[in-house]
Amino acid sequence: MRFIDEVRLTASSGDGGDGASLFRKEKFVPRGGPNGGDGGRGGHIVFVADRNLNTLHHLRFTPFVKAKRGNPGGGNNRTGRGGEDKVIPVPVGTTITDVATGELITELTEDGVEAVVLEGGDGGRGNARFKTSRNRAPVKAEPGGSGITAELQLELKLLADVGLLGFPNAGKSTLISRISAAKPKVAAYPFTTLEPSLGVVEVPGQYRTFVVADIPGLIEGAAEGVGLGHRFLRHVERCRLLLHLVSLDAMEDEVHGAPLERFDKLNGELERYASELAQRPQVVLLSKCDLVSDDTVAQVQAAFEQRGITVHVASSATGVGLTELIYAVAAVIDAAADEPS
Q1: Domains along the chain?
Q2: Angle at CA of residue 41, ends 36 and 42, nearest 5°
Q3: Residue 124 to residue 272: CA distance in whole angstroms
Q4: Distance (Å, rounded) from C-alpha 94 to C-alpha 113?
Q5: Of 106, 117, 230, 253, whose CB count within 10 A is highest?
Q6: 195 CB contacts (<8 Å, ≥6 apart)?
Q7: With contact defined as beta carbons under 8 Å apart, do 40 and 82 qualify?
Q8: How does pLDDT run across 151-167, given as a tens digit for each residue?
Q9: CA-to-CA distance for 100 and 98, rounded, in angstroms?
């Protein structure tokens, strides 16, 4: 199934039912009077967060959704039945925006949370409502209120404890496949990962887990939409911690510059997209240490430490340093959770 993280659809809530204009007609009851009931309200458009969904794929070919109309009122002051709501399940982390105004309507960030996005029309009042001492036989009844139609933009922003950050071929997909049960596509060419994926990482000996998001590689200009651009950065927004992978592969130096230079470039993209992202806690990992000598590792590590940046060293291919990395990430998550919001 394709990962779909953006869908646009037109939604309409139900019209309210018409009020009834009726009179009581029973044997031996003269001047029975008005007894037309109110119409039922129209159905709402309701979105509900469902943790069992991880994409918006089920809405890809549903361009229009509509709730049911309310039933009209009846005799004996009977109120019409309300129209059935249209309930639409979406993944946790979905945002819903009104396309016409650009207004963010709601964010569904917890499983089971419901949001009434478009309310149904009110039911019209029946003629029994208009009876007065001066007008004892009103024939007036109100039509049901109209529902609301709006074009909605749905976007999924992954919810994760840790987001993997790095240039293409930094080793993000291989790393998440080694520390979790996630199985992203892995290949030796840039932009292998085109769709985000989530992996659950167990912290050895601590009976706890954290969630890691493997997000497509970032390139220069992403803040302006270059490459995967905003599609990538959207998912970074909801990650509590960024695990910044800087590859030690010499080929990356030729393409994107030295390790420290690459580190600065990516943080610059975060700053341009949203300054708050650049301030998000980061753990820096020098990946693919198996491809270079110990001396090279030490030189790169020293260059980062001269800037006051603590780095970790690991190889997903050999497994060296991965356990230590998991403990370090868990510790930073705990520290971030303890900070006042």
Answers
A1: 1-156 (2.70.210.12), 160-338 (3.40.50.300)
A2: 130
A3: 52
A4: 11
A5: 117
A6: 2, 3, 216
A7: yes
A8: 999 988 766 788 888 88
A9: 6
